[in-house]
Amino acid sequence: MSDLSADLKNAGVPLGGVRLYWLGQAGFIFKTPAGKRIFLDPYLSDACERLHGFKRLSLPAMAARDVEADWVILTHEHTDHLDPDSIPEIARRNPACRFAGPSGCVEGLEQAGVPGDRRLVLEPNQRHDLGDLVVHTVPADHGDLSPTALSFVLDFGGVRVMVSGDSSWRPKLFKPLYDLNPDAVLTVINGVFGNMNHIDAAMMVAEAKPRWAIPCHFWTLAEQGAGDPAGFVHACARLCPHVEAKLLRPGEGLTIEARSREDQP
Question: What pLDDT digit, counting tens, does each position of 111-124 carry?
């Protein structure tokens, strides 16, 4: 059993909190106090090299065959987010798992063998109740590369996590998510293909005013930009010193507890 699988199995999550893990690239896992596991954009294969010639530079934090999931949530349909090699195996090994993403993901999920009764289309500017969490969506700005791409807040009850998705820095688009007072922000920093770089991302974090900020989408595929995680931490220290900017290694977890009543906005 890998360290990540063991931690997922054994780690307790305080009532009202959530434990998150970085999978590498833009992928994360969330474990709830009830033990539910929600996967976000899990890229666990070498599909980008097979399909696009983009060689993987860092190993995935876990194998698709080891995934135990209740939900898989996707920001958009690109290969490093909707993994055509991992999604079929996850769906096959987790028959009760459901999959949610914008309309641009429908074709990829169909090709992955995910039946319609296990798919949920996430519409922009909506509140989607998934039972174990609520997803608040806004359009991302990934340009013509993915017109239906989304940014969102995952509301676990006591903790809210903002996910930038692949997007440029767009304060007006993101404002409805800022208004939800996220506790943590997960943000891309690779700075190519229309995505925020580390300075853009730090400015976005300063606007969102979370307790935690965690960068992602770096050091996995050279063609998608190196990113500057240390630069992101330093930029946050200058622009929003009240925020704890934290770097996670692939497979590392972080528990976020619910705010105390005194800290509620």
Answer: 999 999 999 999 99
Structure tokens at 40: 């976000």
Return contacts of 226-230, CB within 8 angstroms, 24+ apart: 226/190, 227/189, 227/190, 227/191, 227/197, 227/198, 228/189, 228/191, 228/197, 228/198, 229/189, 229/198
> In which residue ranges of the chain is pLDDT below 70?
1, 261-265
Q: Which residues of 145-166 are buried (b: 16+ CB within 10 A; e: fewer)?
A: ebebbbbbbbbbebbbbbbbbb
The CATH homologous superfamily for domain 3-256 is Ribonuclease Z/Hydroxyacylglutathione hydrolase-like (3.60.15.10)
| Structure-block tokens of residue 236 | 């946050």
Task: Give the predicted TM-score (pTM) of the model.
Answer: 0.96
- The residues spanned by each domain of the chain are 3-256
For residue 25, the Cα-to-chain-centroid distance in whole angstroms is 9
Token pair 């833009």 is found at 26
> What SS3 string covers 113-162?
CCCHHHEEECCCCCEEECCCCEEEEEECCCHHHCCCCEEEEEECCCCEEE
pLDDT in tens, 21-56: 999 999 999 999 999 999 999 999 999 999 999 999
Do 140 and 165 form a contact (C-beta atoms < 8 A)? yes
Burial of 184 (0-12, 13-18, 19+ CB in 10 A): buried
Amino acid at 170: R
Amino acid at 53: G
